[in-house]
Every structure is written in structure tokens, then in C-alpha cells.
């Protein structure tokens, strides 16, 4: 499987938006096309919190 290029500024912003809207990790994977490991690493680097499974705020 080919690796995607480095994260662009636009992808960083998209990840921030998805995290702010309380999307689950699975939803972020589908929206970005990135692996869960890469998403977790980038979220940590950006200081974001992404919930692992369909856990949403009530």
C-alpha cells in the first residue's frame, strides 16, 4: 500500500474541525483516508482529542 504524502495545512485544519465536532476515530479515518495510527499521531501533535469509538457528547 502506497503511503500518502505528508499532512498539508488544509488536512491539519480538516482534522481540527473533525475533532471539534466530536467525530469518532472511525469517522475521521473515513473522512481523511488516513490510517488510525497516523490520525492519532497527528492529533497528539496538534493537541487534539479524538474519541476512539462512536462516543459522542450528550
UniProtKB/TrEMBL annotation:
Source organism, top-level taxon: Bacteria
Protein name: Uncharacterized protein
